Amino acid sequence: MVSWSELTTLQQEAANSDQTSFLLGPAGAGKTTTLQHRLLRLLAAGEPAYTLLVLVAEPEHQQGYLQAVHQSGQGPYADLKITTYTQMAQEMVSLFWPLVARPAGFDHPYQPPTFLSYDLAQLLMWRIITGLLAEGAFSDLRLRPQQIVSQLLDTLNRAALNGLSLQDAIERQIDTWVGEPDRVRHLHDAATAVSNFRRHCLQHSLLDLSLAVEVFDTQLVKHPEFHRYFRERFRHLIVDNIEEQTPAGQNFVASLMNATQTTAIAFDAGGGYKRFMAADPLGANQFRAMCSFAFDFEENFIAAPPMAALSNLVENFLMHTTQPTLGAEEGILRVINGRYRREMIAQLVAALADLVEEGVPTNQIAIIVPYLDGALRYMLTQALGQAGLPYFLLRRRSSPRE
Fold first, then answer.
1. Beta strands of 169-212 (E only): which ranges?
2. Rounded-to-integer distance, Cα 216 and Cα 230, Å
3. pLDDT tens digits for 359-393?
4. DSSP output for 264-279
5. Which residues of 74-88 are buried (b: 16+ CB within 10 A; e: fewer)?
6. Would you give the end-to-end CA distance of the chain in angstroms?
7. Half-sphere exposure of 368 (CA within 13 A, CB side)
8. CA-to-CA distance for 88 and 91, rounded, in angstroms?
């Protein structure tokens, strides 16, 4: 980690700012480093770690802040809370369970809550759909039962993270369906399955991720007792990658950012890569106007100019923007579209084979996907391996050196 003296003047000003501040700039511009130094400055000034809250977009981002504090030798920091929105939601719902259980609709509010891991939620959903499958639900749908379970849980999670009630989410799916008319019945089957799942959870004080987030967002964040607790507990709020937060997460920040003495929010310009996971980069723009100070980070400490130009080239092609691309050749060779992943991967392999046959070296070809999840990673490795095409997979959060 760079020392305080190595920071730019802008970084030092942002790290020392009072009240509410908004840090805007591309990835690699030094915003996270600035937030880490802000945290260290607060601890060095005698602020108890117990009063600091750092909200990150992904669990793996916690380690960077912990390492910064550890390397600084600032003393005990076990009470320092560095967490994600979903982790915060589950912890606070458990802590304030007596206040929210009854209003949230749980049948036995005196029973303590049980939080379901994703694996346990899958098992419960499997039990729910087993009877429905036997009755003919999801008939002629070309998905394995395990895939149906995963998609149903995704529906629940996206609804909660987008701040939608379960009923609203179901109605939106049905009302906006533009596929084959007879397939609408599958959406009704899905509605029955998720409703049965939610009813079972309410009856037995079970909370999967979606229900924990919904209770936190609709009940607890609005509760005056929670506001009092938050105001007395946390004096300083630091939020990194606000563009990767969901509408529910942004609602939490917007509702409570003025309850602390200071709030610092960092926004990656051009970010929002987790839109598939309900991230809301457009909604995050509101925080600039809500903050007392705004700092624009323009210098990039990581990305080489040719890589930045290539990134701009891809953005211009996909988003019809006009970012500068000097130094980047016309590198968009093909665009692969299709309704299903399997169809797109088949097109991709054929396109790659054509390029190799034309003499293009494989190490000069980059395949860019919006989101490389485990399923897509597996399908790509299988298809490329069978085609005899050498490859190297790189996730977004890999180091710049990789």
1. 206-207
2. 13
3. 988 888 888 887 777 778 888 899 999 989 888 88
4. EEEEETT--GGGGGT-
5. beebeebbbbbbbbb
6. 19
7. 14
8. 5
For residues 377 and 379, give the distance between their C-alpha atoms in angstroms, rounded to a whole number. 6
Residue 210: both structure tokens together: 């979606």
CA distance 286 to 37: 25
Among 333, 315, 254, 260, residue whose Cα is nearest residue 81: 260
- Burial code of 106-118, b = ≥16 C-beta within 10 A, e = fewer? beebeeebebbee
Task: Provide the token pair at 177.
Answer: 């369906």
pLDDT above 90: percentage of residues in the chain: 59
**Token pair of 32 as six digits:** 């996270």
Least Cα distance to 265 among 55, 66, 30 occurs for 55
- Coil, strand or helix at 52: strand
Other beta carbons within 10 Å of 306: 12
Buried b (16+ CB within 10 A) or exposed e, 173-191: beeeeeeeeeeeebbebbb
Token pair 């054929």 is found at: 350
Sequence letter at residue 244: E
pLDDT score recorded for residue 398: 46
Q: What's the one-letter identity of residue 399?
A: S
**DSSP state letters, 66-124:** HHHHHHHT----TT-EEEEHHHHHHHHHHHTHHHHTTTTT-S-TTSPPEEPPHHHHHHH
Fold of 4-93+223-296: Rossmann fold (3.40.50)
256, amino acid identity: L
pLDDT tens digits, 34-66: 999 999 999 999 999 999 999 999 999 999 999
* Encoded amino acid at 302, one letter: I
Token readout for 11 is 């970084």
CA 263/CA 53 separation, integer angstroms: 10
Q: What is the DSSP letter of 220?
A: I
Q: Which amino acid is at 391?
A: Y
Residues 21-34: pLDDT tens digits?
Answer: 999 998 889 999 99
**Tokens for 257?**
């950012």
CA distances (Å), 381 to each of 340, 357, 375, 388, in order? 17, 20, 10, 10
